[in-house]
Amino acid sequence: MTGSPNEPRPEIGSTEDDGSGISRKKLLKAAMVALPAPLLLGATAPMALAGDSTSTDGTANLTSTPQCDDGDDPTPPQMEGPYFKPNSPQRSSMVDGPGTALTLSGYVFGLGCQPISGVLLDFWQADNAGAYDNIGYRFRGHQFTNASGAYQLTAIVPGLYPGRTRHIHVKVQAPGRPILTTQLYFPGEPRNNTDPLFNPALLMTVRNVGTGREASFDFVLNIPQDPGPTPTATTPPPSGTWAAGTAYQVGDQVDYNGVSYRCRIAHTATPGWEPPNAPALWQTV
Ligand SMILES: [Fe+2]
């Protein structure tokens, strides 16, 4: 492949002006900004959406991530790779070693650009030296989108390891839906041009803030959404020992409508994440 490290990336659906006037995402963004502060993550609200090209230093020519708009494609999947481990801790901060501070935030949408709450995001990445922790859970963690469909991860910029460009792994699953396994990439990385797995549709928007980096990426799951309420999992009338509000640990066993399940990831049970709807959390025994 050709191209210099600083070569501008092709625009993957500009979010600034798509020629069609006000997009649904812009309307959503305006609505989200208008939400009460407690519904927004962190202290930096309003959160930057992927595709925002504003820069604090005015020097970055940022690349848009796929725009969530009517008819847009869902976030493409990528290979899991050899280093995924189940049972990651539930946490939104996984700063487990030295490195350049990285804050990644965004939303999870369905095909109708409606944000989805309660979506499981399980991140894993290399440390500053490009090594994965395959013994413990350094730089591994999962979380759920909040009521606004937003997530925020505090980590470090992952190091490089042979044969790959810089990337972050993630599994994304809405309640009762298939798991999306994919990887996120950094713009301007020299190895983006030579890594056969690299996909520009998975570029985060990244800007320098102080000595750290602030990144954003919005996921679009392959979930049909008509104008109306966000889809929720099909929930049969429950019977058995599973109960919302219970803090389950790895290995805990429950019965749900006559089927036994074993907990795969420690979590607090919530409606929508009943065992039949949550294969990432519950394994059939
Ligand atoms: Fe990797």
From TrEMBL:
<feature type="region of interest" description="Disordered">
    <location>
        <begin position="1"/>
        <end position="23"/>
    </location>
</feature>
<comment type="similarity">
    <text>Belongs to the intradiol ring-cleavage dioxygenase family.</text>
</comment>
<feature type="region of interest" description="Disordered">
    <location>
        <begin position="52"/>
        <end position="97"/>
    </location>
</feature>
<dbReference type="InterPro" id="IPR006311">
    <property type="entry name" value="TAT_signal"/>
</dbReference>
<keyword id="KW-0223">Dioxygenase</keyword>
<feature type="compositionally biased region" description="Polar residues">
    <location>
        <begin position="52"/>
        <end position="67"/>
    </location>
</feature>
<dbReference type="InterPro" id="IPR050770">
    <property type="entry name" value="Intradiol_RC_Dioxygenase"/>
</dbReference>
<dbReference type="Pfam" id="PF02839">
    <property type="entry name" value="CBM_5_12"/>
</dbReference>
<dbReference type="GO" id="GO:0008199">
    <property type="term" value="F:ferric iron binding"/>
</dbReference>
<dbReference type="InterPro" id="IPR015889">
    <property type="entry name" value="Intradiol_dOase_core"/>
</dbReference>
<dbReference type="InterPro" id="IPR000627">
    <property type="entry name" value="Intradiol_dOase_C"/>
</dbReference>
<dbReference type="Pfam" id="PF00775">
    <property type="entry name" value="Dioxygenase_C"/>
</dbReference>
<dbReference type="InterPro" id="IPR036573">
    <property type="entry name" value="CBM_sf_5/12"/>
</dbReference>
<dbReference type="GO" id="GO:0030246">
    <property type="term" value="F:carbohydrate binding"/>
</dbReference>
<protein>
    <submittedName>
        <fullName>Protocatechuate 3,4-dioxygenase beta subunit</fullName>
    </submittedName>
</protein>
<dbReference type="GO" id="GO:0016702">
    <property type="term" value="F:oxidoreductase activity, acting on single donors with incorporation of molecular oxygen, incorporation of two atoms of oxygen"/>
</dbReference>
<dbReference type="GO" id="GO:0004553">
    <property type="term" value="F:hydrolase activity, hydrolyzing O-glycosyl compounds"/>
</dbReference>
<keyword id="KW-0378">Hydrolase</keyword>
<feature type="domain" description="Chitin-binding type-3">
    <location>
        <begin position="239"/>
        <end position="285"/>
    </location>
</feature>
<dbReference type="InterPro" id="IPR003610">
    <property type="entry name" value="CBM5/12"/>
</dbReference>
<dbReference type="GO" id="GO:0005576">
    <property type="term" value="C:extracellular region"/>
</dbReference>
<keyword id="KW-0560">Oxidoreductase</keyword>
<dbReference type="GO" id="GO:0005975">
    <property type="term" value="P:carbohydrate metabolic process"/>
</dbReference>
